């Protein structure tokens, strides 16, 4: 495959205007950064990228909790440094890899759920004077999580991180990763601003459609302290059953205009960060649905099912003929390495700047290079036609063209209930159900991230650029994402004889 190319450097330079070019490598040099969520999909790519492109980073502090019988140090070793994602860096450094990562990474045992993040006073005293920046990626992304758990992780955990940030004397930026789907059911252009305390999507939508609902008191006011007390009281009074706590979260989210407990609690977390930031500069990145890596450190790296993967998987097994979606529905997706590049550009732009405003950047594709439902179906069909899965007898499973069902009932009638139920469970546990995503398909995000991309210096556009304008979504999904899913997630269905080399790149952007 031929090498990847971004927009012409002269075009980028001409569009940049009078803004100072961003030099991301120069910014990263000698910085000490605390990263939460480093063991997650996005966090691993971020850690790898920083270490690979700037060996003169001073220190990466990774806040990691013990889990599954593993200490924080053991988790960083086995779940980050030892995985295939780091093979490019390992090959580059050779025998120096272990020494380099040991020198550059400090594992901090802690948890955003705990008072003072669960960090010992001695370690906190060593870390806080050294930190230049915090990148807060940790989140509970389950759409069907218990209300009390999601609130604790996504809302109160973010507030705890900001309180910790205030103890760092030279900290010059707090970068928070949220989700584009906090915009919920809103259609049209999305203004890239943080939520103010108590602001709800129900209120925002009412102002656009029927303001009388506000004067009539029909739209409830959000009080985060009340939500916290509600979750605590429900748990203490017998709501400890998972099903009841999950249902409580769904009801509270719907009441205030969000689709699910994940987007609801992430929105509340953003409110607390904005309200309590004090003197700390705050920037927010909101990705849409995150796919596998596009080119770095190599194409196709992925962990777990992403938003639409539970649709593709049963289609490849011959269990689904398609899925309920309109052919012209916009499925907003973005490769994970482009999200990482957006994060690094945002941090470089806003680090150390005195600012009253909080800047919000959406990492998305729908308003610039949309993927339509019919094209998604074509990509899935193209992949499984070229690389069929096999049944239990070793025979190829042949598929017919993917159907976009306008009638959900017709789709349900075409699928055995057992198979449909299993697929919906996978869909909800990965990133939500189709009914959740229906409401966000017509959104058009403002272009802060695109304007920022044009400010990246000419020499770094290839390494840190994130343009989605020329992505051939059909080929990317069919030849990179789905093969990556089968290689790294559905390992028993990996494609025999197809190698995804660590040096290969998609055929075109």
Tell me what you see in this structure:
- This protein is α/β, with parallel strands linked by helices.
- The strands form 4 sheets. Strands 3-2-1-4-5-7-11 form a 7-stranded parallel β-sheet, with helices on both faces. A two-stranded parallel sheet has the order 6-13. It has a two-stranded parallel sheet with strand order 8-10.
- It has one domain (9-300, 333-370, 442-469): NAD(P)-binding Rossmann-like Domain (Rossmann fold), CATH 3.40.50.720.
- The protein contains 22 helices and 13 strands.
- β1 (32-36), α3 and β2 form a beta-alpha-beta unit.
Give a concise summary:
With 509 residues, the chain is an alpha/beta fold.
Structural category: alpha/beta
Strand order of the largest sheet: 3-2-1-4-5-7-11
Low-confidence stretches: 1-18, 428-442, 503-509
**Overall morphology:** globular
Strand content: 5-15%
Report the top-level CATH class: Alpha Beta
Mean pLDDT: 87
Radius of gyration: 23 Å
Enzyme class: oxidoreductase
Catalytic activity: a long-chain fatty acyl-CoA + 2 NADPH + 2 H(+) = a long-chain primary fatty alcohol + 2 NADP(+) + CoA
Keywords: Lipid biosynthesis, Lipid metabolism, NADP, Oxidoreductase
GO molecular function: alcohol-forming long-chain fatty acyl-CoA reductase activity
């Amino acid at each position: 495959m031929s090498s990847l190319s971004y927009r012409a450097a002269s075009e980028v330079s001409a569009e940049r205007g009078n803004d100072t070019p961003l030099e991301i490598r120069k910014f990263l040099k000698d910085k000490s950064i605390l990263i939460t969520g480093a063991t997650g999909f996005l966090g691993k790519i971020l850690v790898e990228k920083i270490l690979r492109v700037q060996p003169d980073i001073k220190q990466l502090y990774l806040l990691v909790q013990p889990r599954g019988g593993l200490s924080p140090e053991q988790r960083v070793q086995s779940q980050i440094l030892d995985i295939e994602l780091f093979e490019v860096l390992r090959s580059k450094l050779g025998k120096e890899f272990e020494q380099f990562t040991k020198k550059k990474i400090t594992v901090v045992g802690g948890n955003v759920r705990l008072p003072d993040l669960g960090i010992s006073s001695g370690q906190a005293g060593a870390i806080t004077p050294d930190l230049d920046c915090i990148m807060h990626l940790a989140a509970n992304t389950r759409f069907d999580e218990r209300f009390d758990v999601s609130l604790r992780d996504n809302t109160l955990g973010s507030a705890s991180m900001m309180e910790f940030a205030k103890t760092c004397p030279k900290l010059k930026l707090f970068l928070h990763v949220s989700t584009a789907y906090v915009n919920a059911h809103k259609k049209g252009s999305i203004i890239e601003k943080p939520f103010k305390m108590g602001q709800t999507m129900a209120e925002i939508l009412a102002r656009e459609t029927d303001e009388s609902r506000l004067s009539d008191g029909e739209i409830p006011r959000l009080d985060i302290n009340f939500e916290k007390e509600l979750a605590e009281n429900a748990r203490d009074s017998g709501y400890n059953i998972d099903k009841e706590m999950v249902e409580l979260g769904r009801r509270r989210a719907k009441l205030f205009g969000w689709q699910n407990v994940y987007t609801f609690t992430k929105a509340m977390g953003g409110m607390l960060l904005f309200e309590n930031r004090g003197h700390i500069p705050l920037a927010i990145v909101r990705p849409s649905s995150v796919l596998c890596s596009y080119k770095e450190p190599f194409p196709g790296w992925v962990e777990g099912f992403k938003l639409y993967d539970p649709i593709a998987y049963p289609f490849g097994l011959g269990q689904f003929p398609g899925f309920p979606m309109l052919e012209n529905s916009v499925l907003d997706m973005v490769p994970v390495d482009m999200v990482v590049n957006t994060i690094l550009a945002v941090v470089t732009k806003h680090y150390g700047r005195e600012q009253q405003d909080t800047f919000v950047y959406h990492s998305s594709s729908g308003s610039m290079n949309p993927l339509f439902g019919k094209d998604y179906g074509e990509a899935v069909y193209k992949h499984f036609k070229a690389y069929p899965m096999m049944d239990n007898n070793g025979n190829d499973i042949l598929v017919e063209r993917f159907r976009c069902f306008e009638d959900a009932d017709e789709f349900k009638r075409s699928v055995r209930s057992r198979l449909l139920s299993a697929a919906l469970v996978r869909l909800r546990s990965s990133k939500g159900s189709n009914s959740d995503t229906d409401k966000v398909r017509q959104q058009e995000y403002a272009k802060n991230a695109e304007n920022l991309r044009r400010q990246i210096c000419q020499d770094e556009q290839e390494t840190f650029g994130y343009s989605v304008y020329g992505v051939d979504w059909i080929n990317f999904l069919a030849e990179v994402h789905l093969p990556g899913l089968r290689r790294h997630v559905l390992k028993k269905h990996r494609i025999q004889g197809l190698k995804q080399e660590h040096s290969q790149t998609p055929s075109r952007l």
